[in-house]
């Protein structure tokens, strides 16, 4: 459950390894990659958000644009990087609405626009909207301390507000970093049981002083919503958002739910796409357990920005950047001096990404049933095509052989931060990387880059570069994640 630049997992949206790495380095990553645009975001005037009628008239896009969108989306299906569904809309004009690959490989069932996908942390924007709706109804205030609703919370949480949870500025540790999480997530748990994973841990920083993406924040928001409304989160979601917007193909996934037209989740393996071991959907809950279709998510974007969900003031609150370029459940950045609202999601076997540009009424939604960050990259390229920019097609990365005797020198434990370490082992001509409390991920040898051995994974935009000494001993690695470099020292 993560979320993919101001993009939930362009920097972050393939598996829990991606979520783990991203959660640790989000603040640093966003600071580096958004340095050019950050000042513009914070200078934005109160009139910076336009609200659009969902079906306003637009100039008809040429067929060449639609063909290019299909070509760009299709390029991501190479190298087992993407299977799923994509929609691109500009105003009332649907420019692309298509499935790619298989929803269920075992039965040769194709992906299509009406297939349901798990959307991971894109759930957070729905949770945030529910909080703002309850604020409109006077049942809570985002300025309230959370102790008002969680009286038994630790004393260290006394200064945390509801807004801190919404903006990821609470300092509450991300529960996916608990060492028990890897196995714990496979069994159904209640929100109260999930809270036990993090409630007694020290805060990572004083509330409101820093930004760090944490699923724990949105788990607590789910608990607060149930307390102030007296309703189950799943019912509240249906009643306040899904039913009014006609989102009949969306909901909160459940371990016991028989769901027609739901895609199976997969991940890239050493010899092609393989099934994933699915976690209990109770774990994601208000942080990342929703399922949806591209069509329903387009209804959501049109409804949200068309004034059918929130008041204008609440929408502004949701889409105003704070620390980390984060609003409420969405990242907020700028492109060509236009506001861009976006977020991704990642849960085993599924990745998702959504971009909305209010000034042009452009929506790009990519849902995948293969772990990896293809939806993040694809959505960015599809947006560029829609804006009339020139883009290059996705390129295939090629693994090259490496002598079996060379692999042992890379094996070991490497510390990246106080929260994140990587355990690296050799297997089947490559490396298996295990992040703290997370499932393993395979990296393949790509050759020497600038004289340093480099390995890559097909599950995300990540490479590991090893830095041998003059004696050929490896004591340091550099993890490159979507353009951000993080150093790890052998322990």
From TrEMBL:
<keyword id="KW-0378">Hydrolase</keyword>
<feature type="domain" description="Beta-lactamase-related">
    <location>
        <begin position="84"/>
        <end position="379"/>
    </location>
</feature>
<dbReference type="InterPro" id="IPR001466">
    <property type="entry name" value="Beta-lactam-related"/>
</dbReference>
<dbReference type="InterPro" id="IPR012338">
    <property type="entry name" value="Beta-lactam/transpept-like"/>
</dbReference>
<dbReference type="InterPro" id="IPR050491">
    <property type="entry name" value="AmpC-like"/>
</dbReference>
<protein>
    <submittedName>
        <fullName>Serine hydrolase</fullName>
    </submittedName>
</protein>
<dbReference type="Pfam" id="PF00144">
    <property type="entry name" value="Beta-lactamase"/>
</dbReference>
<dbReference type="GO" id="GO:0016787">
    <property type="term" value="F:hydrolase activity"/>
</dbReference>
<keyword id="KW-0732">Signal</keyword>
<feature type="signal peptide">
    <location>
        <begin position="1"/>
        <end position="31"/>
    </location>
</feature>
